[in-house]
């Protein structure tokens, strides 16, 4: 029993050393622990641990009985001392084995959780890289669009300047034509006035001629 417990404790210590320090065996040990925790493995482990704990409690109870007997008798019995030492050694080894088993379970849990967090961090970093690449591409696209829009804006400004010059020239031509038309109207009015004066003169000449002809006839 004691040899089995020593073997178990040394095995558990070796597993803890493998889990604590990075080495080639660590991956295989983790895979083995993962398999142990699947299916019926947890039930078997709990059963073994419960059995060891019951034996531990039995050893503790035996030690308390021996201790009471030694107190009652008041004399030291070599047989009881040997039994006491044996039970104490067994209880110590079983308690140590249970404690080391708990340590192995917690180490395995924390290592697996740490790996999951590292994977999540790597996934987050990849997503951030993808987002950064997308932002860079988007910024490049925006810069290209901005350059295109600036070129179009410059073209529109040049076209607007040309149209403005044409509009100013057209407005100047219209003003010149308006002034010219005003001059034509003034000239037309003058010609009308002269025409009317000529007609009046002709009418007066006709009246004179007709008046002189009537005198000659008389």
UniProtKB/TrEMBL annotation:
Cellular component GO terms, alphabetical: endoplasmic reticulum membrane
Topology term for the membrane: Multi-pass membrane protein
Keywords: Apoptosis, Coiled coil, Endoplasmic reticulum, ER-Golgi transport, Membrane, Protein transport, Transmembrane, Transmembrane helix, Transport
Stretches of the chain forming a coiled coil according to its record: 139-208
Entry's transmembrane regions: 6-22, 43-62, 82-104
Location, primary (coarse class): endoplasmic reticulum
Family statement drawn from the similarity comment of this UniProt entry: Belongs to the BCAP29/BCAP31 family.
Protein name: Endoplasmic reticulum transmembrane protein
Record's function text: May play a role in anterograde transport of membrane proteins from the endoplasmic reticulum to the Golgi.
């Amino acid at each position: 029993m004691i040899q089995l417990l020593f073997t178990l404790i040394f095995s558990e210590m070796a597993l803890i050393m493998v889990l604590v320090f990075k080495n080639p065996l660590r991956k295989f040990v983790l895979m083995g622990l993962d398999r142990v925790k699947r299916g019926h493995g947890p039930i078997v482990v709990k059963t073994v641990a419960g059995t060891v704990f019951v034996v531990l409690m039995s050893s503790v109870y035996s030690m308390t009985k021996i201790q009471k007997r030694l107190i009652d008798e008041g004399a030291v019995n070599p047989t009881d001392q040997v039994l006491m030492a044996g039970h104490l050694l067994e209880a110590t080894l079983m308690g140590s084995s249970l404690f080391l088993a708990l340590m192995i379970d917690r180490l395995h849990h924390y290592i697996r959780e740490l790996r999951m967090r590292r994977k999540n961090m790597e996934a987050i970093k990849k997503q951030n890289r993808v987002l950064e690449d997308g932002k860079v591409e988007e910024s490049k696209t925006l810069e290209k669009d901005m350059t295109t829009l600036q070129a179009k804006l410059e073209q529109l400004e040049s076209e607007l300047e040309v149209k403005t010059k044409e509009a100013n020239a057209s407005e100047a031509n219209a003003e010149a034509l308006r002034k010219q038309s005003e001059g034509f109207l003034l000239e037309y009015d003058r010609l009308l006035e002269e025409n009317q004066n000529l007609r009046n003169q002709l009418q007066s000449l006709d009246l004179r001629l007709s008046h002189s002809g009537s005198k000659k006839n008389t």
